[in-house]
Amino acid sequence: MDPGAGGGRLNATTRSESTAYFFAVEPAKLAPGLARLTDMLVAPLFDPGALEQEVSVIDAEYRLLMTDAQTLCDAAQLYLFDGAPALRRFQVGSRAAFGPDLPSLRQALRDFHQRYYHAGHMTLALQGPQPPAELRTLAERCCACLPPSRAVIPAAGLRLTARGDAGLHAAGPPRLRLSFALNDPYRHDDGWPGVFRVLLTDEADGGLMAWLREHASCDGVRFIDSWRGAGAAIVAAEFTLAAADPALGARVESAFFGWLDQLCALSVRQLRHYARLAWRRFDGQTPLDQLRQLAFAPPAPPRIDVRAWRRWLLAFRREGLSRLWISEQEAETPIRTRGFDLRLAPFAPVAVADPPPTLRFHAGRFPLLSTPGFYPEELSAPPPLKRGPDSCRTMPVKPGPDSRCPTPLSSGENSVRRSTFRPVADAGCPPRFHSLPSRFSRPVTLSHIAASGTAVLTLSPAPGGFLGEVTGHVLQAALRAPAANLAHGGGELRIEKQQGVWLLQLSADNAMLPSVLEMISARLQTLPTAAISQGQRAWRHEWRRERGDIPVRRLLSRLPRWLSEKSRAYDGAALQPQTENHWQAVLYGGGAGLRQRLARSLQHFPSILASPVLPVTATASASVDKYPLTAVSSRAAESPMAATSACSRFPAAAPVPAPAGTPAARHTLRQREGDNALILFCPEPGGDMDARLAWRLLALIYQPLFFQQLRVEQNIGYVVHCVFHHTAWRSGVLFALQSPHLGGDALHQRTLAFLQQMEQRLADMPSALLAERRATLWGC
To answer: Which residues form the Coenzyme PQQ synthesis protein F C-terminal lobe domain (predicted)?
Structure first.
């Protein structure tokens, strides 16, 4: 059983000293999927033809990574440490590194497999709704098939040391990466990095990030678990700076170490609170992503020990610090490490005498926002983590700490009732924002889906509406601190782009939800200047990152804009100072009383938001046709800057007819160098539910066959993808290809050839197989 063919997901992740294989399928297919995985691990074929294809794919991936800014930053970071030869080792692989002798390569792979792929080197984790006894039986059956354990000689412990600082020339916003070595064995595997990540990225009022944003020094931060080996690790805090100014970097570094000093004073209650936040983030992931995280490190410690926390923090000393200054400034020193060419320069940190900021840490009770006229009750702490016995289990094969994951959120088997609601007049409950000018607000229609559990309110532009990219980032900046404050009280506020549409999603208990919505309305009535500046910079950062991304991802990121009529009007022009947006709202859960209160508040939700005027020079280049978009492609042509596009629709013989007479839009993206890429988006024709389900069924059938034909048999390149895709209020089947040796026209023709072959294949498909695919679709 192929998990991908059955509508599941499968992937593999390779890190410095281990590889983890994952797959996710519906529960009934877990046993055959596990048998297929075990067979692959125990008896790989190493077919010469497949091996040659994989060498080509790995080489194509390596050439992509040679210009990937993130890869170059990671290589430069490891270059600044000594203590392990693996820090310089070429790990990605290339055709030149493998050599032309395919039989020797095949024998080397067999030797490697025999040495490492046995029970003593493996751990199996299973997760699912099955009873524990059933999962254990599956695990034991799998392990019985593995080669028996051999003597494993433990690797000698490492002692990593920082070699100094450097500046790196790389695309993207200016960044400062502060790296540290964790040399104490197992210090990096006890869950504290997960708590540290939550503390570092906390955006609540009074925290480190709030202080840095208030002083216009920093636009973001992330915690990076960079490298592990023989009981040692390298971790880093990377700050995205507001400007490429070393003085800003020095201020950020000074505040960071002041924050570190204050972490030692956290109480058990505070640490337990941040550990719960880490588990909550873990809960929000898919089961496959949860297993991927558990394969390398738990989200938080199983038990809070203040002394252990303080010992772990001892590794973050200035004496062991390595600074990597990342900017687009030219650097003259070429360095080759880990197979990549880096452009490095000396970096001398600037001395500052700023006093350390006095920061605030929380234990689960936190006021949302100091807004005039808004005084919410103190928020309660989040409930203790639930580890239900039925919904989610992880079964370690060999003895170790309990790695069971918490019960994932589930909507249950509720009857769903949809209704559209407008509030009735209620003189006893006047709107809180009665003084808000009517020209700034437009009544929002609220739809309600009856369900049990915590209520969730989602606000989005009405279908066909458009919330500009800059405006979306400004909203995100304006509500960043309130969202973090709400998280400390057990609620959740997200402002993010999903499927090409900006959404505002709010989740809290019934008593809190209306008050939080009114707070958001008040916050958006007059956007702070700082939020506008931060949103403007965030959009520029995203645009610069997009330009440096691989071609197929650039096309996918542009697809929502090409599909949106209003987006096309704004493409290439500066935004107006004010942008009107028509909102729609959906309430999932909650009762009639909550629905009534929210509907009243939504009558005064701002529909006009201040937006900064951006320079035209900051707009990406693209050609836009005045037709509905069905496909986009990009390829290098005779000129280094040239590109072309192609498009099509499904063959007429497909079960669901394509809209007749609809012209296909053609769009291009220009690039200086790199691979050629094409995406072909075929929107569903609309109509009744049966037609839409048939369109989804087509994608499910095409997905494994498209990969097999173009990736395995034709070996067109690294990216071959087919999926049912939602973006910008449109749904359809998406084909995505990227190739180092085929142009856009050739990729388009091969996609058309696949669709033409599928006409006969669909007609000849056995009814049993079609029924299986239909059952998989209903089980998704």
So the answer is: 473-571
Reference 658, options 682, 629, 632; nearest CA is: 682
Non-local (6+) Cβ contacts of 553 within 8 A are 546
**Residue ranges of domains in the chain:** 9-144, 161-345, 418-518+535-614, 621-779
C-alpha span between 171 and 71 (Å, rounded): 11
Residue 387 has pLDDT above 70, yes or no: no
The 8-class DSSP code of residue 445 comes to E
38 exposure class (CB count in 10 Å sphere: 0-12, 13-18, 19+)? middle
Which phi and psi (to 5°) does residue 389 adopt? -80, -5
d(CA 2, CA 19): 20
Mark residue 212 as left, alpha or beta (left: phi above 0; alpha: psi -120 to 50; beta: remaining). alpha
Residue 190 DSSP code: S
**Which string of b and e fits 95-113 if b means at least 16 CB within 10 Å?**
eeebeeeeeebeeeeeeeb
Residue 472 pLDDT > 60, yes or no?
yes
CATH number of 621-779: 3.30.830.10
What type of residue is 115? R
Q: What is the 3-state secondary structure (H, E, C) of 519-580?
A: HHHHHHHCCCHHHHHHHHHHHHHHHHHHHCCCHHHHHHHHHHHHHCHHHHHHCCCCCCCEEE
First to last CA, the chain: 17
Which residues, in sequence order, are bridge partners of residue 110?
none
CATH fold for domain 418-518+535-614: Cytochrome Bc1 Complex; Chain A, domain 1 (3.30.830)
User: Rounded to an integer, what distance in angstroms lies between the CA atom of residue 141 and that of residue 158?
Assistant: 37
Determine the pLDDT at residue 438.
41
Q: What pLDDT digit, counting tens, does each position of 106-135 carry? A: 999 999 999 999 998 899 999 889 999 999
Task: For residue range 594-620, list pLDDT tens digits in order.
Answer: 999 999 999 888 876 644 443 322 222
Task: State the CATH architecture for 9-144.
Answer: 2-Layer Sandwich (3.30)
Strands 445-449 and 583-588, by their bridges, are parallel
One-letter amino acid of 389: P
68 sits in the region (left: phi over 0; alpha: psi -120 to 50; else beta) called beta
CB-CB contact of 263 with 356 (8 Å): no
Compute how many other C-beta atoms are within 10 angstroms of the C-beta atom of residue 462.
Answer: 14
Cα–Cα distance list, 460 to 417, 472, 502, 533 (Å): 20, 11, 6, 23
Distance of CA 287 to the CA centre of its chain: 15
User: For residue 6, which of 697, 695, 700 has the smallest C-alpha distance?
Assistant: 700
Which listed CATH number (3.40.605.10, 3.30.830.10, 1.10.3880.10, 3.30.40.10) goes with 161-345? Answer: 3.30.830.10
* Identical topology for domains 418-518+535-614 and 621-779: yes
Torsional class of 730: left (φ above 0), alpha (ψ -120 to 50), beta (otherwise) = beta
Q: Which residue has the tokens 């009732």?
A: 417
Residues 6+ apart with CB under 8 A from 191: 275, 297, 298, 299, 300, 301, 302
Taking CA 700 as the corner, what is the angle to CA 675 and CA 58, rounded to the nearest 5 degrees? 30
Residue 77 exposed, middle or buried by CB count within 10 Å (0-12, 13-18, 19+)? buried
The single-letter DSSP state of residue 668 is B
Tens of pLDDT, residue by residue over 526-564, are 888 899 999 999 998 888 888 878 889 999 988 988 887
3-state secondary structure of 735: strand
Residue 209 vs residues 370, 549, 551, 745: alpha-carbon distances, Å: 18, 27, 33, 48
Question: Side chain identity at 314, as an amino acid letter?
Answer: L
At a CB cut-off of 8 Å and minimum separation 6, what does 522 contact? 371, 373, 374, 433
CA–CA gap between residue 190 and residue 168 (Å, rounded): 32
